[in-house]
Fold:
Amino acid sequence: MNGPLHRDENVIERSNEGLAALYEACRALVYATVATDDGFVVASILEGRVQASSMAGMASSMQALGDAVTRELEIGGAEYIIIAADRGYTIQLRIPGQPLVLSAVFDSAETVGKGLAASRVSALDISAKLLTEAA
Amino acid sequence: MAELVIMFAGPMGSGKTAAVQTLSEIDVVLTEVANSDRQASDKATTTVALDYGEITVGDDEKVRLYGVPGQKRFSFMWRIIRERAIGMVLLVGNDGPSPIDGMLEFLDEFDDFVDRSAVVIGVTRSDLASSPTLADYRAALDHHRPGMSLPVVSVDTRNRGQMRVLLMTLVESIQTRALIPASASASTSASTSGDSGGEAA
Structure:
């Protein structure tokens, strides 16, 4: 990897592949992004009413707050964050082994369980590809 | 007043996290992560959500200290914290790129807050860059916001004594504003200007 992650073409490509796979698995996906821990957009899909840079900033902050809460409570690391709303929900989780966060928005047609499972699979796929290429 | 919420804002690298850590009487809640863009800023870490600390002033007034991220991509955190805050310490690193422009941009960004709340400006890292001077900041403020005189103070965010004086200047300003009608607040800002932490303009 060269330079910042959000400008690394390989990381961007693998993230785009992961997001495309997530959309294939869950058509109720409204929007998704992969962002760096410090809030830069790496890749996004279904950009429309959601501004990618804004979503990346929020994803970064939410992840850091989740980590801070679990640290204060001494209950281990934050695995994922779910926010349920009237017309949908967001799922956010870290991409294992990478300073990256996957954040996805689903409409209410999708079950939380399916959205979480698909998001986890995508995050693991992105992680596995990046780790394999780095080895 | 039982509790005060004070926000620490300012450009990246101006010392917001250090300021909260220096002042806080509790272990500070930090949300720092590795800074992945060292070309933009050479800091190793950066705050992405907030810093949180507490300090007691007087007999029983608890002051809640919130540091917010400096980059605009986290501006939603600014909105969240400023809804609760009644005062702001705006920190500006004197060694940063265009520090006066940075100060003015933040004041514009927090325009409504500046109009209704107490604000003090702390110029940091003056040991690393002697220019611009506090008089330069003052002149820029007078030009940009005529009639609104905000305290401008040189501080070392690692120095607890200086930071306490800066904080108390803000608390005094908040309490003074609470005693007078809003229409007179601009003149009150002017009356609270002056010596505070370190060197003042």
Q: What stands out?
A: The beta strands of chain B are 3-9, 32-34, 45-47, 51-57, 61-67, 87-93, 118-124, 152-154.
